[in-house]
Amino acid sequence: MIRIATFDPYEEKQLKRLCEILYTAFAVGTEHSSNVRLPEGFAEPYEAARLLEEAPRVHAYADDKVLFLTSKKLKDRALPSGSAPTNGLSKYAGEKAIITTSVVKDLEQGMKTVARHALHQLGHTWELHHCLDPRCAMYPTWTPSFPQGEPIFCPFCRDRSDQKIRLAKS
Amino acid sequence: MSAPSPQIPFAVGDRVVYPNQGVCRVFGVEAKEVAGQKLTFLTMKREEDGAVVMVPQAKVQSVGLRKVASAQEVEKVYTFLRSDSDKADLDWKQRARTNAGRMAQGGILGLAEVVKGLQVLSELRPLPNKERELYDNARHLLVSEISVALGIPEHDAEDSVDVILFPVGRERPKRTAAEFKAPGGDEEMGIGEDMIDLESPEMEIPAEVPEAPEEETTEEALALPKVEGPPTKARLSDEEVTVTQTTGSGLVPQGKPPLKRKRGRPPKPKPAEKAHAAPKKRGRPPKAKPLVEVHVPKKRGRPPKAKAKKK
Questions:
Q1: What are the residue boundaries of the structural domains of chain B, listed by start?
Q2: How many CB atoms lie within 10 A of CB A166?
Q3: What's the mean pLDDT in A102-108?
Q4: With a cut of 0.85, is the ipTM above it?
Q5: Contact B161/A81, CB-based, under 8 Å?
Q6: Are strands A65-70 and A2-6 parallel, antiparallel or unpaired?
Q7: Is the pLDDT of residue B262 over 70?
Q8: Beta strands in chain B (DSSP E)
Q9: Which residues of B fall below an 8 Å CB-CB distance to A?
Q10: CA pair distance B81, A79, nearest whole angstrom
Q11: How far apart are CA B120 and CA B142, in angstroms?
Q12: Residues A108-153: pLDDT tens digits?
């Protein structure tokens, strides 16, 4: 089950649309779980890794994945080989992921882009690595073609995620 | 905690890399009796999923067990990924052999070579499923080792590799087969040899291959470096440099065209008679026509003299 928790208010219609897209991609039940409060001491742009650590607990079961949504920007991460633009973050094989909707001006218009980011981060939680196919949602998010793509996986990544989900269910 | 011995250069608690398996932690050296033989095993636990791996003491070296890479080695990996060594082997057999060797014995740099090689190849055409899996495995092992070596989370380790492989704000370039041709290479090692469906009729070599177009193709391929514009990496390869020297050097007279060696497999000898034979009709043969009396044309002129009877 994918549970969406929001740090900021969103229209119910938009969240429903996002749930539909995620359900189509993973074939896993998706719902808007709750609206959660931002922990103390965070200023825009948010530090994604720390926010994931300190995010309030959302009621979920063992195999559930929690996706946090925020409309505020996330801070770029400094890596050993350079700086990575950050529009979302998740721990590899973890339970929690976060994405920002600040990548689009109008959420209604840019729902596909937001959903693609959501797919990407949730894919990491199901142990998917970055993909070589520019059409796949697992393609690195900082590439220029990423926002234009559809919220779908390539056959290889879809098989992998299906396999992981099936293993988690059993 | 046991100290490393000459036979087993790892101590209990060490983090080691088992080729093709990933990062493991040594948790014991045990003596066991297997099939009547007393053997000493190095026992490890794979960090990813806790799977237990037991390696006999005699096999520790041969399986390629090694210590986790240091920060300096990771830095070398980043330098390699940044470098322009973007030549991919187009011969799939050779590539598979090399990649298997790199995965087993190549260390962390070998993993980086597999990832980069396959990524460069994917800029030419989509990878076949086997190689896509190999790419994913190599990437997974590389990322987990970098993560352990630098003590950073796996998602940061992966992004640190991909920030180099997929530069920010830039799309990956599209490549052509000409860019990958090895200097003095053979066209038999052509792109997509592994993808050719030998049974499909489109892939059949035509019976009559005209000579002229082949010449043109060779000429076109050789003429590639002459194209004006910004120089690409491919044009700077050894092959092109040799070609330019041959055509423009004093060894070849100006008036005469330079001798061109035909590349690739020589064409099959054509059967002389069959070449002009009418094409074989397909389908059921036509029904035999009913027998008709053969009309013998009447001979003109005087009828032949009757032969004299012998007495």
A1: 15-67, 71-165
A2: 10
A3: 89
A4: yes
A5: yes
A6: parallel
A7: no
A8: 15-18, 22-34, 37-46, 52-56, 66-67
A9: 74, 78, 119, 122, 126-127, 129, 132-133, 135-136, 139-140, 143, 150, 152-156, 158-164, 166, 168-172
A10: 15
A11: 17
A12: 889 999 999 999 999 999 999 999 999 999 999 999 999 999 999 9
Which stretch of A15-29, B4-18, B241-255 has the lowest confidence by average pLDDT?
A: B241-255
Task: Match domain B15-67 to its CATH number in 3.40.50.12780, 2.40.10.170, 3.30.2290.10, 3.30.40.10.
Answer: 2.40.10.170
Over residues B229-233, the mean pLDDT reads 42
Domain segments of chain A as ranges: 2-169
Query: What pLDDT is recorded for position B202?
Result: 42
Interface residue A163 vs chain B (CB under 8 A): no
For residue B108, give the nearest of B73, B154, B151 by alpha carbon: B73
| Res. B148: pLDDT tops 70 | yes
Return residues 117-156 of A near B (CB < 8 Å): 124, 129-130, 132-134, 139-140, 142-145, 156
Is there a contact between A68 and A96 (Cβ–Cβ < 8 Å)?
A: yes
Distance from CA of B160 to the nearest CA of A (A): 5
What pLDDT, on a 0 to 100 scale, did the predictor assign at position B192? 45
CATH fold for domain A2-169: Collagenase (Catalytic Domain) (3.40.390)
Kindly determine whether residue B160 and residue A143, on different chains, have CB atoms separated by under 8 Å: no
How much is the pLDDT for B85? 66
Closest C-alpha to B142, from B163, B123, B122, B116? B116
Q: Which residue of chain A has the CA closest to B140?
A: A129
pLDDT over threshold 80, residue B294: no
Sole residue written with tokens 């990575």:
A84
- Span B182-194, mean pLDDT? 48
CATH annotation of B71-165: 1.20.58.1290
Helix (H, G, I), strand (E, B) or coil at B140: helix
B161, amino acid identity: V
